[in-house]
Write a structure and sequence with these properties.
This protein is α+β, with helices and mostly antiparallel strands and 310 residues long. The chain has three domains: 65 residues, no CATH class; 106 residues, no CATH class; 116 residues. The protein has five helices and 24 strands. The strands form seven sheets. Strands 19, 20, 21, 22, 23 and 24 form a six-stranded antiparallel sheet that branches. The longest helix is centred in the N-terminal third of the chain and has 18 residues. The radius of gyration is 21 Å and the shape is globular. The protein starts with a helix and ends with a helix. This is WG repeat-containing protein. Pfam families: WG_beta_rep. Keywords: Signal.
C-alpha cells in the first residue's frame, strides 16, 4: 500500500510538471533577448541585454522564477507570467545566487530574502543580510561598510545584529546549548538548530552518515575543526523532483556550507522516493549556438568506489 501511494504521488508530480507551460529565452535581431512559450507566444518582449545573446539562445527556463539582465534593468528576476519580481542583491563579487532555496533581493536601499518560488520570506527591511546558511541568515540595521579600512573588501561594522530563519521569523538565541548542532555566536549565545526531519528524511540522512568517513577521505577538510554535517536544504518541487542535501563544515565553530553553484561533489541529491542517491557537480557544455552550465549526477556509491580505488 505504501509503495502504491508513493507511485501515485510521483505520477501526480510528473503530470503537474508536464502540464506546466514551457518557456524559452529567444534572441531577436542578434542582440535583443525575450521570453516566449512553446506556442511562440511572447511572455516578455525582447530588449537589449548587456549579457552575450548566445547565453540565452533558445534555452528552456526550468524554474519558477528566472533572471534577465536588460540594459535598462539588470540583475532582475521575473515570474513565469513575465511579471517583474525583484532586483538581486549585489555583492562585491557580483549579483547574489541561490543558497538553500533562497536568494537576497534589494528594494529602496534595503535587503531581504526571497524563495526560489518567488515568495518574499522577509520584506526588504535590513541594511544588510547574509545568504541563508545552515537554515538561518544574519542581518543588521544601522551597520555600514567601512571603506577607510579596506576599500576593496570593506568590513561591515556597527549596527544592531540578529538572525532570521527560513520562514522569515527572527530567531531568539539561547544562553546554553540545547542541541548538539546549536551554533555558538561570538557573544557566546546559541542559535537553535534549524532543521527538523520526518522518518523518511532521517533515513535519507542516515545513508550519508553511514558513508561520512568515505566522503571525507575523498573531499577532505578545509578547516581545523574537522566536523562535517549533512542537511536536507530543499525538498522535491515541481521544477526539481529531488531532495537536495548539502554538506556543512565547521570552521571556528561556525558552519561553512558548500557553495551550490561552484562546489562540485560536496552537494547531493536524492530521488523523491528516497531510493536513489547522487553526488552532483556542474559541467560547462558548449553547444553550436551557446554554452550552458549543466548539473551532472553520479550515483554516490559508484562515485565513492571510483575515487577510493584510485
Amino acid at each position: 500500500m505504501k509503495k502504491i501511494c508513493i507511485l501515485l504521488l510521483l505520477l501526480i508530480s510528473h503530470l503537474t510538471f508536464s502540464q506546466t507551460e514551457k518557456l524559452f529565452f529567444f534572441v531577436e535581431k542578434d542582440s535583443l533577448i525575450g521570453v516566449r512559450n512553446q506556442n511562440g507566444e511572447i511572455i516578455i518582449n525582447p530588449k537589449p541585454t548587456w549579457n552575450s545573446p548566445s547565453y540565452y539562445y533558445n534555452r528552456e527556463i526550468r524554474s519558477a522564477i528566472f533572471n534577465l539582465d536588460f540594459n535598462d534593468k539588470p540583475f532582475c528576476y521575473y515570474d513565469r507570467n513575465g511579471k517583474f519580481i525583484f532586483k538581486t542583491f549585489i555583492t562585491s563579487e557580483g549579483p547574489d545566487g541561490f543558497q538553500e532555496g533562497f536568494i537576497r533581493y534589494s528594494e529602496n536601499n534595503k535587503s531581504g530574502l526571497i524563495s526560489s518560488n518567488g515568495q518574499k520570506i522577509t520584506s526588504a527591511k535590513y541594511d544588510w543580510i547574509s545568504p541563508i546558511n545552515f537554515g538561518f541568515a544574519s542581518f543588521c540595521n544601522g551597520c555600514y561598510f567601512d571603506t577607510t579600512q579596506d576599500e576593496e573588501h570593506a568590513p561591515l561594522i556597527g549596527g544592531v545584529w540578529g538572525f532570521v530563519d527560513r520562514n522569515g521569523k527572527e530567531i531568539k538565541t539561547t544562553t546554553k546549548r540545547n542541541h548538539p548542532k546549536d551554533i555558538e555566536t561570538k557573544e557566546h549565545q546559541f542559535i537553535p538548530y534549524q532543521f527538523k526531519y520526518n522518518k523518511k528524511e532521517q533515513e535519507i540522512l542516515a545513508f550519508f552518515e553511514k558513508r561520512k568517513n568515505q566522503i571525507i577521505k575523498i573531499n577532505g577538510f578545509n578547516c581545523s575543526d574537522k566536523k562535517l554535517f549533512f542537511e536536507i536544504v530543499e525538498k522535491p518541487s515541481e521544477f526539481d523532483s529531488f531532495y537536495k542535501i548539502k554538506t556543512f563544515e565547521l570552521c571556528n565553530k561556525y558552519p561553512n556550507g558548500a557553495d551550490e553553484n561552484y562546489d562540485g561533489f560536496k552537494n547531493f541529491k536524492v530521488s523523491a522516493d528516497g531510493n536513489f542517491f547522487y553526488v552532483v557537480y556542474i559541467d560547462l557544455v558548449n553547444y553550436k549556438e551557446y554554452s550552458e552550465y549543466i548539473e551532472r549526477k553520479i550515483p554516490v556509491d559508484k562515485w565513492i568506489k571510483e575515487n577510493l580505488n584510485k
